[in-house]
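Quick note —
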Amino acid sequence: MVSATTRIYLIALHTSLAGMLWGLDTGSIGPITQMEQFSGSIGHLSSGVLGIYVACILLSASLSSLCSGYIADLLSRKYGILTGGIIVLLGTIISASAKTFPVLVCARLITGIGQGQSISVVTIYLCEISPGEIRGTVAAVLQLLITVGIALGYFVAYASSRIGGELAWRTPFILEASMAAVFVSGMAFMPYSPRWLIQRGRIDEARAVLQKLRASSELVEDELHLIKGSLEEQSQEDASYREIFQKRYIRRSFLGVFLMSSQMLCGIDAVLYYAPILFTQAGFTSNRAAFLASGVSGIINLIFTIPAQLWVDKWGRRFPLIGGGVSIATCFMAIGTLYAIYGGKADGQVYLSGRGPQWAVIILIYMFVASFSCSWAVVIKIYACEIIPTRLRAKACAVQQLSNWLVNFTVALTTPLFLRASPSGPYFLFGSAALFTAAVCHFLMPETKGKTLEEIEDLFEMTPQVVGHSVSIMSHDMIVSGL
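Predicted structure written out below.
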């Protein structure tokens, strides 16, 4: 018989296939656009057009993520994820069969609509089905499968680049479509979120779901009582986007939006989308070598996500965000300094002189990816979701995800031009953003480790002075315990 905890992890694995689909696209789209077979059939893309093509998925994802709050509240978290998966399936099928560049752009926009819808709801769903003691680990499954998808996307694109003809660049899209079909077919069998059911007054159904997802019936009744009590304290009217920014909730709402924006402004997708360009500038002299170096960054991304996945509920939220931010900033500041001293431009191309600086930059890029993967990649989405009250969670997380996609869109759109315009500028910009975020977390972020979603609501109802005192105590305890 499958235990309740095992059942939760199996559900998390399947719903997080939405993340694997995103990772497959992230890992493969850069190598695809650098393939000679792609240029031969679609045409050569300038830096500006390349940025538009890569980034357009983020624009449509940002728009659909804003609507995801309505859909997740109206249809349920389950069907919010499912409808997104169906749209992703349609978009990837069109991408795999497209004959012209305009069709590819349209297909990518369609895929983005589905990705924005499904990914925005997955973290909400996983947080709401999980008990407090494993909530971080369960919700982190999404990021784990994103990293699996990124690594897989790199190496599928590398392997398919050896195929002659158009099938070389179509193969990654075919894989994405196949994965989307598996994802959609399984979502129909996933349970509803018990908190959504209680919001809709379907108490008996919520009890039945919790009985399958909790170890004992006593825990089920206690949790039902806690959720109902929390919802009764909140307004019985339907949640609105305006309410998210009312005085009672504005602090946590702005904190969530800020963290989700900062996650992309640190430059992670500049590395993941344009890794072949970064490694070519750092000294790799062939596309094949740059592809392999990009694949190594995908493997590092995956490997360093695993310890964060396992220990997120032990580490808490503050330590990975503050420590990770400092580490991320250090790596990029060091790269920027190396380019400022040893870099330059010739014939419109950025170069880096000397084998020592070149290898140092490559190693620092890998260290940046490792630092991000074991800290911000896992913790930010969880924290931004769990600090929002149940009644407002879907719409607040939709706004958070909107800010994430829009910043990501801006970074993806401008990075190719920025990388060619300034050898060191991008790295100093991203590093400064990461350092500022770490400082904000140090002063304004209370710890939520091990607390139920309803207890977290109480934490944010405390006065700022009490919260600040609690943060100081938790920081002291972390130092004493050796964290």
